[in-house]
């Protein structure tokens, strides 16, 4: 396995880690829009309060790894999705601000405003991440100089929106399971219902998305069934899909959360297997696609960055594990809560 492939895998792992960790954050935020009262909304916020900012480290690290290992890919993707990324950034900023500011004024209207900011600021990124992924899978319009020739509205095509809805349903399922772990009583029972509905919706949308991909991006299926890596990713994901509703029904929410994590990681893993060695297919002409070999940093850069990554990644993983261990248990509202 060469350095280019290793970095392709590492970038995928970082973004998968972000999808698993911040995915349930975004799902919890979206579910807060359906909370019954102020106390439930506070429980939603405080359930992720200690961990949400650490989860977003994975997004920053993934973006940094993409920039270091595949600079032309980073430049093309970020310039092509510029307006969408600015909208995404604004949503994430409003989401973070809402948690800090909602309790600063003793006013129901004030708190409700920031509750809406928290909910919408979680719902919108969950969709936008999927829309971005859908455009990557379908291919974006690039000319022979790898310049984006499309428009912002062109990114909102039916296929990309379908992937966005799939991402939203996965995150809501994931967030509902996390909330079931962190709550009890009536709220926990309703989260169990949301988890079941999220699972069912995700399975239906995934099947529809797979069928749609046959028409939108048939090149992704070239030789896929003969790939060992496809089966190494697909079979665990299929097992998780079957295992998850059983664990939800049995109220074994920790195992259900593990299964939903495998589902999300598996979906992204299949994306990577299908794309490889491309990173950004060109909708205009596949020959204009960005690949891990033609659009990477130098071998020396990849080698040095790999050493740095092997030192830094265990620190990120260790930090994440410690924080989750410290803040384990049910969410309780105290005078120090958000």
How would you explain this protein's 3D organization?
This protein has a two-stranded antiparallel sheet. 75% of the residues lie in helices and 1% in strands. By secondary structure, the chain is mainly α. The longest helix is centred in the middle third of the chain and has 32 residues, at 185-216. The protein has one domain. The model has no long low-confidence stretch (mean pLDDT 92). Helix 9 (158-182) runs antiparallel to helix 12 (253-275).
- In the sheet with the most strands, the strands line up as 1-2
State the total count of DSSP E strands.
Answer: 2
**SSE topology string:** HHHHHHHHHHHHEEH
Overall form = globular
Radius of gyration based on Cα positions = 20 Å
DSSP strand (E) fraction?
A: under 5%
- Average pLDDT works out at 92
Helical content (DSSP H or I, runs of 4+):
over 70%
Question: How far from one another are the termini?
Answer: 48 Å
Number of domains: 1
User: Which ranges are low-confidence, i.e. pLDDT below 50, for 5 or more consecutive residues?
Assistant: none
Biggest sheet details: 2 strands, antiparallel
Structural class: mainly alpha
Number of helices: 13
């Amino acid at each position: 396995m060469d350095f280019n492939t290793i970095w392709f895998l590492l970038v995928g792992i970082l973004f998968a880690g972000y999808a698993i960790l911040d995915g349930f954050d975004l799902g919890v935020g979206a579910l807060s829009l359906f909370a019954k009262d102020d106390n439930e909304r506070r429980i939603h916020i405080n359930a992720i309060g200690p961990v949400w900012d650490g989860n977003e480290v994975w997004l920053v690290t993934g973006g940094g790894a993409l920039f270091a290992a595949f600079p032309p890919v980073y430049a093309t993707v970020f310039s092509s999705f510029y307006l969408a990324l600015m909208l995404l950034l604004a949503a994430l900023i409003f989401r973070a601000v809402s948690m800090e500011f909602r309790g600063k004024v003793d006013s129901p209207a004030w708190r409700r405003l920031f509750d809406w900011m928290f909910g919408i600021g979680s719902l919108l990124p969950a969709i936008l991440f999927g829309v971005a992924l859908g455009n990557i899978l379908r291919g974006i319009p690039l000319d022979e100089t790898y310049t984006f020739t499309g428009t912002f509205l062109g990114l909102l095509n039916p296929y990309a929106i379908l992937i966005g809805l799939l991402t939203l349903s996965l995150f809501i399922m994931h967030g509902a399971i996390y909330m079931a772990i962190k709550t009890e009583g009536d709220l926990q029972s309703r989260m169990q219902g949301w988890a079941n509905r999220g699972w069912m919706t995700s399975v239906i949308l995934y099947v529809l998305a797979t069928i749609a991909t046959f028409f939108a991006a048939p090149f992704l299926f070239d030789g896929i069934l003969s790939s060992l890596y496809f089966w190494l990713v697909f079979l665990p994901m299929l097992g998780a899909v079957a295992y998850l509703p059983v664990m939800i029904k049995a109220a074994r929410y920790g195992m259900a959360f593990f299964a939903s994590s495998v589902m999300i990681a598996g979906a992204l893993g299949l994306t990577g297997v299908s794309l490889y060695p491309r990173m950004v297919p060109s909708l205009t002409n596949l020959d204009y696609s960005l690949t891990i070999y033609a659009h990477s940093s130098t071998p020396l850069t990849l080698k040095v960055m790999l050493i740095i990554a092997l030192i830094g990644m265990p620190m990120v993983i260790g930090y994440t594990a410690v924080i989750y261990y410290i803040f384990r248990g049910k969410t309780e509202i105290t005078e120090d809560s958000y």
